[in-house]
C-alpha cells in the first residue's frame, strides 16, 4: 500500500497516511466542509478516516483515497478519492471526489489529479468514472469539464449534477 504512487511530474498521488492528519486539519476550510467532508474534522475523526482508508488499501476495498501532493510528493494540498461501489452507482462505475486546500485552488492541480487517477481506476476495473457535483459548486464542475467529463442529467433525486467519462475509451 505505501508504495503506490502516481505522478505526472507536478502532482503526485499516494495513499493517505497517518502523517497527513495535521496537514488535512490545517487545510480544511468552509468549502471542503460544505462540499466534501460533511462536517468539520477533528483530530479523532480525521485520524479514524485515514486509518479506514489505509485498511481499504490493505484489503483492496472499494475506497481508494489518495493524498494530492506537490514538491516531489512532500506537501499535501488535497485529496482525491475513488469509490468503486457506492449507493447509486451501477456496476463498473467509479465515483471520483476531490478537494484542494484553499491556497492551492485555481492552479489546475485538481484537474491534474483527476486525470492522473483515471488510468488507475480503469486498471482496477472501472468502466465509467462519475463525478457528482452540487449545483452550487461551479469550481468542481469546472474541474470535471477540464478533465474531459461530460454532463449527464441529475440522477436519482440526489440533486447532484453528474459528469461522466468512459474509462474504456476516454482515458488519457
UniProtKB/TrEMBL annotation:
Name the keywords, alphabetized.
Answer: Transferase
Q: Which residues form the N-acetyltransferase domain?
A: 11-168
Could you tell me which Pfam families the record lists for this protein? Acetyltransf_3
Task: Say yes or no: keyword Transferase present.
Answer: yes
What does the entry list under GO cellular component?
cytoplasm
| SUPFAM superfamilies assigned | Acyl-CoA N-acyltransferases (Nat)
Keyword check for Flavoprotein, yes or no.
no
Q: Which GO terms describe its molecular function?
A: protein N-terminal-serine acetyltransferase activity; protein-N-terminal-alanine acetyltransferase activity
* Segments forming a coiled coil: none
The record's annotation in InterPro entries points to: Acyl_CoA_acyltransferase, GNAT_dom, Ribosomal_N-acetyltransferase
Q: Which PANTHER family match?
A: N-ACETYLTRANSFERASE DOMAIN-CONTAINING PROTEIN, RIBOSOMAL-PROTEIN-SERINE ACETYLTRANSFERASE
Protein name as it appears in the record: Protein N-acetyltransferase, RimJ/RimL family
Annotated source species: Streptomyces indicus
